[in-house]
Amino acid sequence: MRRRKGCDVDREKSSVLTPVVITRLANRLPLDGLAWDDSSAPQAAVLVALTDEEQPRVILGRRAAHLQHHPGEVAFPGGKREPEDASPWVTARREAHEEVGITQAHVHPLGELSPLMTRTGFEVHPCVAMVPASPQLIVDTGEFDSVFLLPLQTFADTAVFRLETMSDGHVQRKVAHYTLDEDMIWGVTATVLALLANVAYDAGLNLT
What we know:
three-stranded antiparallel β-sheet; five-stranded mixed β-sheet; 11 strands; 3 helices; Nucleoside Triphosphate Pyrophosphohydrolase
């Protein structure tokens, strides 16, 4: 195992050849334990789970239609911070296990992205990790109507990505969107995918 100075999350040192994209992400993303910050906003964490393959796939789900926040939208497994959660990794691992059945021992941290704000006012911490190539998923239908895996490289394609100016009635902001086979991934989820595509593939997607 190797540990960065000051980091409370271990990376896995594998005895087999690590896929190039996974290695690139591990080398380029910070991994500092990602302690909670002092934000006054409610906080959450998501697990951005990438499969251990030469062309990694990312685990996504369609949120259940009855949920209060973001019903029917495509999202990563994750959820709200609990008072006892020492870091976003604790939250992300627990929620991913509860929502899609990813065993916590199979979650190997690669790095972190800076927190992002959702339109509903949550500060979301993305935790990027490697999981087995063929993860055994058990879906909590109270959280997700369906779960699926898409190649990460899909999100490096400029033809399916755009920024759209949106307004909540008070503030206008540019929001990331992906259009895939007439389906839509947008908001924080799309922003995370675009940021990862830029790191993993030097995609050059403009997020400003």
